[in-house]
Amino acid sequence: MRVMSVLCRCCKVIMLWFGYNGFRSLWDWIVRHRNPLLVLLFPLVVFRYLTYSKKDGNESETSDDNTRPPKNSLDDEERGISPGQKRPSEEGGVSVSKRARSNQEDFQNDRFEIVDENASMVHSNESDIRTENEVDEGKKLTGPEEEFDSREYRVHTTDEFYCDYDSTWETDPNEESPPSRIRQTTNSNHYMFSRFERAARDMQNYRHDYPNQIKTQHRKKNTNENKPNLNFYLGKKRSVPDGVYITDIHEKWYGDYERLEYVHTYIQWLFPLQEPGVNYEASTLTKEEITDFLNHSIAKENLLKSYKLMLDFYGIVLCDEKTGEVRRAEHWEERFHNLNSHTHNNLRITRILKCLGTLGYPHYQAPLVHFFLEETLVNRQLPNIRDSVLSYFLFAVLDKTQRRNLIRYAYLNYEPKDEFVWCPKKIQKLWSMQSKAAKEEAADSLGSQKDTLISDSEAQEEENLSADESCNSAESHEDEETFSHNED
């Protein structure tokens, strides 16, 4: 029991630093080394960890409170709720553990206090840092945006498949939600929706620019030595532990698919984020680095080269550098097979999408996600990455209007539709009605076109028939004249 307790605490450390991705990476490592003892021990430790956590009487500790956003943190910011106020759900008597509540209040107080004191130091060029709110703010409502903001698209916390960590469908920040949350998911969809909720928590943290990490980043000195990611992209620093410059990776690693597949330490250098990864020797991205990165044309050009490098590795080519449009490469079949059989690349693609949104290429996100939606749902390729496309790739898109359009595209092409859990059921029904009405309208239009063609053909036949009759009467008249002349 003592050993199991120690192992459970190790699991807590993994969840603290890496979340569920840490477990997945650990499992991949165990499978690669083919150690039967570890293969048997791993599930037992995870099971014991889950039961061990439940005995504490606290909430499930999938990740530390200080490394993930609290539930409905987005809702609170949009509704203007101050740290000291209670949410409607708390006033309604929803049970929350004392430890979680105190941690949340401490975090909020620390966060606002630090932001007020050091806002000018952190964001000297704050307008360049792209978050979900900044992408959507000030945008003129035209076309689909006006449709999505209509009353029909307003959802409540009691709607089926409503996700606490997804703000995609929130349109009115001043509208109060019901005091309690009642889930109505069916048993068959419970696992898929739970998996989506776990992913949504991570993606919301990214879309809101990792608000919980402001406190720790202020402790670091703003010196050039503390900008390893920027220096690497400017060609001033080698990656660790591989010891290569950015130009070497672009020139010597391009097309070396064996190396790109089985070396796992370079991806965090090519696409740095404000969250840790598997390579503990790589540094997380800081706010100062982001600001400086966006002001360096060389760094942004090198990031574009890194993006093209990985697209080629996945069998994709960038068609338009201005719009970010992508298509299949000539060698797509071979690379699709590798992508479908090595699912750790799902984590890499998620990282790439996040990095594009952070470091100056947010307009590249939607085209790449649309490509994967089309390949998985329409062309029926890459079945092993479909769930990651829907739960992670799609919700990495910062632009809310683009994200909504992508979800609608996914729903209309997803089968069976009763298993779709990535947006509230209310909106799914609305889209089904719209799709049905569009099909009926198209059928009516096609029927009217057929009627028009039939009437035109009938009129043409009548015209031809009358012409034939006139010709026949003329011929008979000529025959009569000839006969009478012969008699004379």
Structure description:
By secondary structure, this protein is an all-alpha fold. Among the domains are: 2-65; 203-430, no CATH class. The protein has 22 helices and 2 strands. It has helices at 2-18, 20-33, 36-55, 73-79, 88-91, 98-122, 132-136, 144-148, 187-207, 214-217, 228-233, 246-252, 257-262, 267-270, 287-294, 297-313, 332-341, 345-358, 365-378, 386-393, 400-413, 425-487, and strands spanning 316-318, 326-328. A two-stranded antiparallel ribbon has the order 1-2. Helix 1 packs across helix 3 (36-55) and helix 18 packs parallel to helix 20. The longest helix is centred in the last third of the chain and has 63 residues, at 425-487. The relative contact order is 0.08. Residues 52-129, 136-143, 174-183 and 216-223 have low confidence and may be disordered. This is Opioid growth factor receptor (OGFr) conserved domain-containing protein. Residues 224-426 form the Opioid growth factor receptor (OGFr) conserved domain. GO terms for molecular function: opioid growth factor receptor activity. Pfam families: OGFr_N (PF04664). Residues 56-150, 441-488 are annotated as: Disordered.
Quick description:
The protein has 488 residues and is an all-alpha fold. 60% of the residues lie in helices and 1% in strands. Residues 52-129, 136-143, 174-183 and 216-223 have low confidence and may be disordered.
Which SSEs are present, and which pair or pack?
Layout: H1 2-18, H2 20-33, H3 36-55, H4 73-79, H5 88-91, H6 98-122, H7 132-136, H8 144-148, H9 187-207, H10 214-217, H11 228-233, H12 246-252, H13 257-262, H14 267-270, H15 287-294, H16 297-313, E1 316-318, E2 326-328, H17 332-341, H18 345-358, H19 365-378, H20 386-393, H21 400-413, H22 425-487
Antiparallel strand pairs: 1-2
Helix pairs in contact: 1-2, 1-3, 12-16, 18-20, 19-20, 19-21
